[in-house]
Amino acid sequence: PNPDIQAVVRGTLDKKRVEMVLHLSRFEEVRIQREEDMFLVEEREREELAQKLQEERRAKILKMQDNRQFLKEWNEAQEASWRKNQKRQVANERKDLEFELTCQ
Question: What is the b/e burial string over 81-96, where b = at least 16 CB atoms within 10 angstroms of the residue's CB?
Answer without folding.
Answer: eeeeeeeeeeeeeeee
